[in-house]
Specification:
Layout: E1 12-19, H1 25-35, H2 56-61, E2 69-74, E3 77-83, H3 91-100, E4 103-109, H4 116-127, E5 132-137, H5 146-155, E6 161-163, E7 165-168, E8 176-179, E9 184-188, E10 202-205, H6 212-227, H7 231-238, H8 245-257, E11 262-266, H9 275-285, H10 289-292, E12 295-299, E13 302-309, E14 318-327, E15 331-340, E16 342-344, E17 348-351, E18 356-359, E19 363-366, E20 371-374, E21 376-378, E22 382-386, E23 396-398, E24 405-406, E25 416-422, H11 425-441, E26 446-450, E27 455-460, H12 463-476, E28 481-483, E29 487-488, E30 491-494, E31 498-507, E32 514-524, E33 533-537, H13 549-560, E34 573-581, H14 589-605, E35 609-623, H15 627-636, E36 640-647, E37 650-658, H16 665-672, E38 678-688, H17 691-703
Parallel strand pairs: 1-3, 1-4, 4-5, 5-11, 6-11, 33-34
Antiparallel strand pairs: 2-3, 7-8, 8-9, 9-10, 12-13, 12-24, 14-15, 14-23, 15-22, 16-21, 17-18, 17-23, 19-20, 19-22, 25-27, 25-28, 25-29, 26-27, 30-35, 31-32, 32-34, 35-37, 35-38, 36-37
Helix pairs in contact: 3-4, 6-7, 11-12, 13-14
The structure holds guanosine-5'-triphosphate (GTP).
Length: 704
């Protein structure tokens, strides 16, 4: 069934399927792969047979964590599907995918409507300007309500839906849809019971009598919405003239590409209903790489110089790596989106983010059940390549003679950490390998070694994120280890400037001694993104020789790893080396490093050190009757309420709450609200821990 890669970019769609956890993203993707002919046997997601979920954990947990790209073909168009994860802990993966998508299908649960997590993902898609169509899934489910779901698109997302279909029948009687463009009914015969080979195809019929009026009303709305955007169409509309389907489609396409409107489809992925018309809509309305146009890149030598790259074969090559995965047979596989140019396998490129040469090895397009080798990389398309050694997620690959850097991706701060203690020396080695491999795939976790306890500390986005990392270490890399409880990633900072601090490191132990004298100043520094520390050399007259100055810097950074209050990393420091003294024989890099480190430790004690904790932006949606309880609970967790709003019959409460108070929140919220409230949270900022709480944390850290 493999087809050659299309070179006509107007026939390429790079899309994502985005959804709240359990809305049916995996099932929908599976059905798409079935209908597009590459998947002959459907995997039922929770039996572990789904082809996009090839990691063990995904099979067991039934959730899609990694984004794999799968290529399929629909009516002679090539559709590349980039799988986007739906869990809140993996929003970085979602952003990473959104970065390389041209359009998306937002899948909603037809009973729940827009859920908080779909809202988060929706807003992320807004941020990247990704045009979308909506698929209201699970129309066969008890309580499914298409019109309610459409309302939630308005109320909860503030977006403008365009109803393209009406459901025929509801719940177990849901049999098909009215297509408002052709004004026909598409009916899927028979009950598939989740087996796609049963009742997979639809028949075109007349609209059932009881839906004719409603269909007319909705078609009128549809045509009016489209006509309003085009003077010529509007004239026709008011003159009562027929506007052709092609004219309507062209109008919708323009509005979708401009992110002004979101066509809404419905169906039941599980029962194989509604997938084909939704695929037609992907092709009809979502943008192709030409619609998206030029991408903005930067000169690697000077970020302020903007360079545009057009999706053309004869432009200089540029591509973004958005995923590194370890394939069971090929080893390291790098997923890339090519933005411009065309190059063959074997070509030399440059990783312009890291300034390293790379060679493109074999190139594949990943189909659902096999890899399809291709000869070259083409602008506008998505590929998996082997042979790249140093490229990790977020890196740009360029033409060596025309280098650019595509906007790099920002990742939220990892705020939860877990300590891992390998059982044997062998396990320690396995752990290092595991960490290195996992870091290539996922740049969102950080690793540090606690020199005092010998523990390896891994920091990530949330409890589940860490859970999965640890699980993979044990399972894939066979690391035997004791794993601690997840802890909040506290930080320390200083509040006062210490303008001058002298420290002399002197040691005489037989032979040659050690001597270094430094005078430093430290001051609070506003933390911005990765800028958590600044070092300035203010030494004059060679009083500290050039070669020792970096050692002082390194010594201070070493000391900052373990803050003086409770051993948490210190951030937000501007350090200056003001003066010093050396000895011809006894001074060394090591001596200056120790002096720098000790000078910082002692100076920091005078700089009013404080503890910082991660604050989470929490959003709770609750029926009004539980609002008092929810707010009371947030207050008792040291939360600050930011706003309260009404949205489609529920109250939306937004608050800033310390992460340390959010462990186990989901269970408490469920029991307080009889399971009727939902919440989402994302990292917001670091804030100073109130004195009383800080004292407790310090006590505990010292006790341990
Ligand atoms: N009744 C009904 N159930 C569905 C439908 N689509 C999916 N499901 C079920 O809903 C559950 C979740 O479906 P998935 O496809 O795994 O959902 P997902 O959004 O990929 O979930 P994650 O991978 O966990 O994010 C499974 O038990 C599916 O069988 C549908 O159209 N109707």
């Amino acid at each position: 069934m493999a087809q050659d890669v299309l070179t006509d970019l107007s026939k390429v769609r790079n899309i994502g399927i985005m959804a709240h956890i359990d809305a049916g993203k995996t099932t929908t993707t599976e059905r798409i792969l079935f209908y597009t002919g590459v998947n002959h046997k459907l995997g039922e997601t929770h039996d572990g047979g789904a082809t996009t979920d090839w990691m063990e954990q995904e099979k067991e947990r039934g959730i899609t964590i990694t984004s794999a790209a799968v290529t399929c073909f629909w009516n002679n168009n090539q559709v590349n599907i980039i799988d986007t994860p739906g869990h809140v802990d993996f929003t970085v993966e979602v952003e990473r995918s959104l970065r390389v998508l041209d359009g998306a299908v937002a899948v909603f649960d037809g009973k729940e409507g827009v859920e908080p997590q779909s809202e988060t993902v929706w807003r992320q898609a807004d941020k990247y300007g990704v045009p979308r169509i909506c698929f209201v899934n699970k129309m066969d489910k008890m309580g499914a309500d298409f019109y309610f779901t459409v309302d939630t698109i308005v109320n909860r997302l503030g977006a403008k839906p365009l109803v393209m279909q009406l459901p025929i029948g509801a719940e177990s009687e849901f049999i098909g849809v009215v297509d408002l463009l052709s004004m026909k009914a598409f009916v899927w015969e028979g009950d598939s019971k989740g087996d796609v080979t049963l009742g997979a195809n639809y028949e075109t019929q007349e609209i059932p009598a009881d839906l004719v009026e409603k269909a007319k009303e909705y078609r009128e709305k549809l045509v009016e919405t489209v006509a309003e955007t085009d003077d010529a169409l509007l004239e026709k509309f008011f003159a009562g003239e027929e506007i052709s389907i092609d004219e309507i489609k062209a109008g919708i396409r323009k509005l979708v590409v401009a992110n002004e409107i979101y066509p809404v489809y419905c169906g039941s992925a599980f029962k194989n209903r509604g997938i084909q018309p939704m695929l037609d809509a992907v092709v009809d309305f979502l943008p192709n790489p030409l619609d998206v146009g030029a991408i903005e890149a930067h000169d690697p030598r000077d970020e302020s110089i903007v360079i545009e790259r057009l999706p053309q074969a004869d432009a200089p090559f540029s591509a973004l790596a958005f995923k590194v995965a370890v394939h069971p047979f090929f080893g390291r596989l790098t997923y890339i989106r090519v933005y411009s140019g065309r190059i063959d396998s074997g070509a030399q490129v440059v990783n312009s983010t890291k300034g390293k040469k790379e060679r493109i090895g074999k190139i594949f397009q990943m189909h659902a059940n096999k890899e399809n080798p291709v000869d070259d990389l083409m602008a506008g398309n998505i590929y998996a390549v082997i042979g790249l050694k140093d490229t990790t997620t977020g890196d740009t690959l360029s033409d060596p003679n025309n280098q650019v850097v595509l906007e790099s991706m920002t990742f939220p701060e990892p705020v939860i950490e877990v300590a891992i203690e390998p059982k044997t020396k062998g396990d320690q080695e396995k752990l290092s390998t595991a960490i290195q491999k996992l870091a290539e795939e996922d740049p969102t976790f950080r690793v540090s070694l606690n020199a005092e306890t010998g523990q390896t500390v891994i920091a990530g986005m949330g409890e589940l994120h860490l859970d999965i990392l640890v699980d993979r270490m044990k399972r894939e890399f066979k690391v035997e280890a004791n794993v601690g409880k997840p802890q909040v990633a506290y930080r320390e900072t200083i509040r006062k400037t210490v303008p001058k601090y002298d420290y002399t490191h002197k040691k005489q132990t037989g032979g040659s001694g050690q001597f270094a004298k430094v005078q430093i100043s430290i001051a609070p520094l506003e933390v911005e993104a990765d800028k958590i520390y600044v070092f300035e050399d203010k030494v004059t007259g060679g009083r500290v020789p050039r070669e020792y100055i970096p050692s002082v810097d390194a010594g201070i950074q070493d000391a900052m790893q373990y803050g003086i209050l409770a051993g948490f990393p210190v951030v937000g420091v501007k350090a200056q080396l003001l003066d010093g003294q050396y000895h011809d024989v006894d001074s060394s890099e090591m001596a200056f490093k120790i002096a720098g480190s000790m000078a910082f430790k002692e100076a920091a004690r005078q700089a009013q050190p404080v503890l910082l904790e991660p604050m989470m932006a929490v959003e709770v949606r609750t029926p009004e009757e539980y609002m008092g309880d929810v707010i009371g609970d947030i207050n008792s967790r040291r939360g600050q309420i930011q706003s309260m709003e009404d949205a489609s019959g529920v109250k939306v409460i937004r608050a800033l709450v310390p992460l340390s108070e959010m462990f186990g929140y989901i269970g408490d919220l469920r029991s307080k609200t009889s399971g009727r409230a939902v919440f989402s949270m994302t990292f917001d900022s670091y804030a100073e821990v109130p004195k009383a709480v800080a004292d407790e944390i310090v006590q505990k850290a010292k006790g341990e």
